[in-house]
Structure formats: C-alpha cells, structure tokens
Amino acid sequence: MRDTDFAIVGLGNPGRKYEETRHNVGFLVADFLAQRNGERFQATKWNAEACRYPIDGCRVFILKPQTFMNLSGRAVVPFCSFYRIPADRLLVVHDDIDMSVGRIKLVSGGGAGGHNGIKSITETLGTPEYLRLKIGIGRPGDGITPGEMPVEAYVLANLGPHDLETIRQRLPLVEEGIALVVRGELAAAQTLLNRLK
C-alpha cells in the first residue's frame, strides 16, 4: 500500500436486467466515473470488475462486485486486502431507501441500515469504519409507487425516468465530492454533497 491508494466501490447486482434498478445506483456512479475518465472495467480474480481512476497522481481503483448484493464483502475485502487498502481509504457507494430520491449523504462508519451489501462488507471486513456515499432512492409510497409494495421488490424495480434523471443530474457533483474525499478533504466533500436534498 502507498499513502495515496484508495478504493471506490459501487454496489449493485450484475447482469443487464438489473442495470437501471434502484439497487444498482452504486453501479451507476461507478460507470459514470469510469466513462468520464475514458476507463473500461476489466474482470478480476476477486469476483469484481475494476478499473483505475486517476486523481492527482493517486492510485485509485473503482470496483463493481459481481457477487450479487448480499455477498459484496466477498469481492471487496479480498481486493482491498491484496492492494493493502485500509478501511479508512475505502468508499462504498450505495442506494438508501430512507432518503428521498437523489438526496446525497457522505458519512463515515455507522450501521448497515438494513442494506445487505453494506452488512456483507462490514461483516467480512470486520469493521464498520469505512466511508459510505448514500444515494436516496425513496421508498414504497413515495411518488407513484404503491405503499404496500414490498421493499425487496421495490429496490429491484427499475428507477422511473424522472428519478433516473434526477440522480444522473447530480453525478458531476458526486464526482467532484469523491475527488475531494480521495484528496483527504472529507469535511469539504460533506459540505458539498450533504446539502443535496
């Protein structure tokens, strides 16, 4: 490990049928970052796709676990272990059902909040002390979604066109915030991102 090494993990489920589902917001961010920098994801031996993400000379990796959400830790932890990336230089991007669509919240540590991908990473890593970038997807009963829709079905359903566009419009600011995090400016990143309601 070098002091500049960093891992950004976008959570989601692999396969085309999951591409625009609410649970794949982490993949959406990862793909955006890669495309903006002309990078392509390559398969790795850790059940994940990865690419480089250059920021000011730092060696940064973007990771998309291919294990399905509930087993995300089985991809993330071996990858970080191999490259000797410590928990405090790991940023996990994921959906959050308890926040309105498009709201952004950058936090350090905390509980899983019912998110199975976060639960898997925390259990496998052995600590909750890593960075999370939460992106709101709303919950059943918000907007046009029936309130009685099961949460499991809701997160695996496609984002509506308006919700998808709301999130996509915020991706350039998300990229700016992530760059601040990598440079060690966490407070500045939180000021930038956590105001996005």
From TrEMBL:
The active site is at H23. GO terms for molecular function: hydrolase activity. It is found in: Cytoplasm. The record marks D95 as: Stabilizes the basic form of H active site to accept a proton. It catalyses: an N-acyl-L-alpha-aminoacyl-tRNA + H2O = an N-acyl-L-amino acid + a tRNA + H(+). Keywords: Cytoplasm, Hydrolase, RNA-binding, tRNA-binding. Pfam families: Pept_tRNA_hydro (PF01195). The keyword Chloroplast does not apply. It is an enzyme of class 3 (hydrolase). It comes from the Bacteria. The keyword tRNA-binding applies. TRNA binds at Y18, F68, N70, N116. InterPro entries: Pept_tRNA_hydro, Pept_tRNA_hydro_CS, Pept_tRNA_hydro_sf. The record marks N13 as: Discriminates between blocked and unblocked aminoacyl-tRNA. Coiled coil: none annotated. Its EC number is 3.1.1.29. Catalyzes the release of premature peptidyl moieties from peptidyl-tRNA molecules trapped in stalled 50S ribosomal subunits, and thus maintains levels of free tRNAs and 50S ribosomes. Hydrolyzes ribosome-free peptidyl-tRNAs (with 1 or more amino acids incorporated), which drop off the ribosome during protein synthesis, or as a result of ribosome stalling. Monomer. Belongs to the PTH family. This is Peptidyl-tRNA hydrolase. It comes from Desulfofustis limnaeus. The gene is pth.
